[in-house]
Automatic annotation (TrEMBL):
Entry protein name: Aminotransferase-like plant mobile domain-containing protein
InterPro entries in alphabetical order: AminoTfrase-like_pln_mobile, MAIN-like
Source domain of life: Eukaryota
Organism name: Lithocarpus litseifolius
Domain Aminotransferase-like plant mobile: from-to ranges: 2-84
One GO-annotated biological process of the protein: meristem maintenance
A UniProt-annotated Pfam family: PMD
């Protein structure tokens, strides 16, 4: 396969998505933790910028906290996950400042 045989921006066409699907479209490129109860995963859109119609450069290094994948929920019925993951929630709250910027 040659580079000219690859469709680098497969999602650039307008698919007629409803407004609620494209509202705050710039948030799609926010490099932030995604938090769901006891699960935290970092969203790394800077690794797939072409899917967002942006030029792909060298992505930043991924900081990985393996403690997040060693969570044992046994005996943690009263665990306050909002408090436990407060730092990650703060980063999410600042998502407007964590957008990936690249030329189209």
């Amino acid at each position: 396969m040659q580079p000219d045989q690859i469709m680098w921006q497969p999602y650039e066409a307008d698919f007629g998505l409803p407004d609620f699907c494209v509202a705050e479209r710039d948030m799609w490129t926010a490099r932030v933790p995604l938090v769901c109860f006891c699960i935290v995963e970092t969203h790394h859109p800077d690794r797939v910028l072409r899917q967002f119609g942006l030029a792909q450069g060298w992505p930043d290094h991924v900081v990985y906290d393996d403690r997040l994948h060693r969570i044992d929920l046994r005996g943690k019925v009263e665990k306050n996950w909002r408090e436990e993951y407060g730092p990650y929630i703060l980063i999410w709250d600042m998502r407007q400042q964590r957008l990936c910027h690249a030329p189209p």
